[in-house]
Amino acid sequence: GSFPTSYIPTSGSTVTRAAENAYMTDLSMFAPNEFTVYVEGKHPPLHEYRRLVDIGDDSGGSNNNTVSLFGNPAGNLATSIRINGTAQGGPSTLIVSHARGDNIKAAIAVAENDAAASADGLTPTTDTTLNFAGVNFNRIWIGRGTEGYPNRYADEAISKIAIYPKRLPNATLQAMTEE
């Protein structure tokens, strides 16, 4: 019973296993606030803003400083960038319609005053007004939300995730997300 894959006899009782997720807290290999995240997998369930990946800091609270890729209740794949709790423009508005279980490819890239997001090979949405002053993105949650939303699990398969220590060009974001 020491490992998640261990057999546990239940004698006919119902057993519920906790949702799986992973997170990384040492992002020292990255420039302080510059990175690109690429995700490939299945579109999450159509409720409760199910997270595929969240990048944030340990400021606590709901969405204080986060870069997110998630499925929303309307059935869309969406991105969000929030600084000090305020939604930013550009990549925060990337919305691509999908059904649960659809294959998806999406990327979001950020740097000071320069962010972009793309999915399904679409022209990236951009924002050149981001101000990360005082923000230290230092955690990545894969398959669930940040500490502010710890129960928003993806509940779908993530087949590939790649994190680049720089903001990739828009043409690269578009090419890497083509079906």
Shape: globular
Number of helices: 1
Give the integer mean of the pLDDT values: 75
Q: State the assembly state of the protein chains.
A: single chain
The low-confidence runs, each spanning 5 or more residues with pLDDT under 50, are: none
| Rg (C-alpha, Å) | 17 Å
Strand residues, percent: 35-45%
User: How many beta-strand segments?
Assistant: 12
Query: What string, H for helix and E for strand, traces the elements in order?
Result: EEEEEEEEEEEEH
Amount of helix: under 10%
Terminal CA distance reads 41 Å
Describe what this molecule looks like in 3D.
The structure is a single chain. The chain has one helix spanning 170-176, and strands spanning 22-24, 35-42, 50-56, 66-71, 76-83, 86-87, 95-97, 103-111, 114-119, 125-127, 139-142, 158-164. It has 179 residues and is mainly beta. The strands form 2 sheets. Strands 1, 3, 4, 5, 6, 7 and 11 form a 7-stranded antiparallel β-sheet that branches. The protein is globular.
Itemize the secondary structure elements and their pairings.
Blueprint: E1 22-24, E2 35-42, E3 50-56, E4 66-71, E5 76-83, E6 86-87, E7 95-97, E8 103-111, E9 114-119, E10 125-127, E11 139-142, E12 158-164, H1 170-176
Antiparallel strand pairs: 1-11, 2-8, 2-12, 3-4, 3-11, 4-5, 5-6, 5-7, 8-9, 9-10
What brief labels describe this structure?
mainly beta, 7-stranded antiparallel sheet, 179 residues, 12 strands
